[in-house]
Amino acid sequence: MVLKLVGSFPVQPDRVWCAAPHPHLPLVATASTDRAVRIYSLRDFSLVSTIEGGHKRSIRSLSWKPNAKGESVLATGSFDSSTGIWHRDERGAHGDGEQQPESNSEEREEEEEWRFAVVLDGHDSEVKSVAWSAGGSFLATCSRDKTVWIWEDMGNENYETIAVLQDHTQDVKMVAWHPEEELLASSSYDDTVRLYKEDTDDWVCCAVLTGHTSTVWSISFENNGHQSRLVSASDDQTARVWCRKPKVGEESPSQPPSIIKGATDETENWEEQSVLPKIHTRTIYSVDWSKKTGLIATAGGDGQIVVYKEVDVTRDGEPSEFGSEQSKEWEIIAQVPAAHGVYEINSVNWCPKWDKQGTKVDGELLLSTGDDGIVNIFELNL
Amino acid sequence: MSDIINANPTILNPSDLPTRQSESRKKQSSSAHIADKISRLPTSKALLYDPFSASLGEDSAYGSGASDQDDDDEDESAPEDIDEQEIYDLISTISDPEHPLSLGELAVINLPHIHVTHAPATPENPYPMSHVLVEITPTINHCSLATVIGLGVRVRLEQALPPRFRIDVRIREGTHQSTDQVNKQLNDKERVAAACENETLMGVLSNMLATCK
Questions:
Q1: Please, what is the end-to-end C-alpha distance for chain B in angstroms?
Q2: How many domains does chain A have?
């Protein structure tokens, strides 16, 4: 399989830290060292808006709120220690999805439509990552101040801090929510990944994943029904897959795990399942588990993008480790060296593919952002 | 910074410092002398692409000596132009944050502790990367300024070297009580990026870098 470069967004003046596809429109937002958020169209890869003025330092991370009704809501985390919430009304005739690919004057209007609505203060130092929960009711933020905060959206642009989690012993690099459950994961400079959930009234750490030997930069959950897995990527140049084990005493492992059932016992049992084939030669800065195809992509300081697929392996005559007929294994199915020339890659993200008219089509794209200020768009050709 | 952390550092005579130019008349300090001599050996092109270049972190001072032409051209087509001596020249002139002396004079930066490797271009990867590892020797083993010095070295190299360079700055093994901690911090891209937006810190760094040619 070949990961083919199908386009790039217009180049930015400074390092691009990350990119996030809109939950239902053909748009991508990017966060940059130059303190601007840029919004691009996935129909023609053009720049739609540049949003500036909200943050005093680099914007490190951003996240679109899922299920925002009639508007787009974007959260941004910045080195200025604050988190910003931006709104744009989508009820007019300008839903970028369906409408005409219009003129410059309209683009200027669109820029003005973005409103810096709320500033969430609280962290003592740089905010490294922000993430909305799947239902959109919670926003998690994390910082060099070693804490993870959970904010609840109370409506009318009111946000309440409902948890300040201080379990990590060093900078917290990234936060990510489970695609269905209200289960939060964070990864840290202390080499661990931690998981949190609500226990009666309090959010508590319910699992610690240890195994990496250096900073864990990035984490991503799998979206696969009742099975819960997470992939983590580290400065130790490895990416690892972790799996939730059914609780002892739980009736049947085939039954979907219920968080209500677990409410009396806050611990979860997570185990390292596999290490992805080692190929990176520098820090892996980003990992993303496709919610659509189940493929995993990684990228990092060595400038490579790598795509992995889980395959069934049957070992002839060899007894399988777990006594089952077959076992699964991750293999590399595509690899792009120097995906941003000589520059480092800061993030990779899977995102839906759209046609010029703004209709979602089959297939999936992979976005990568680099120190060269470029966002590249790749497609996996079978 | 009112309390001086190391009031009596050992200072090298400027004329003892390794240099590529006018080497003949200088008395060299022993270790720098040898390394400097080696780095000036004529090197064939073949040697530049030897297996040493793949093993990052190896003591490759001997593997990647340089062509003798000393031009400042940092053109991407000529990666062999940048060698240990050139890296030394870039960073040894940085001023110490508490003494009016350079990092070269204080032997914080030493030529034998700089390692440069260049990956060869291959059909699969037309954009080969280069790697520089600088090991810093703090003047005393509890020097709280080690991080600032390391950051100064990193910032100087990031500004001066072409983007194909991957830079690792470490405290030399056994010369500081919290080596691992400082190393991790110095090589965390995000922390370095955030530090570079800290005006107070950048003020200190720009004073340190003001003495660089």
A1: 26
A2: 1
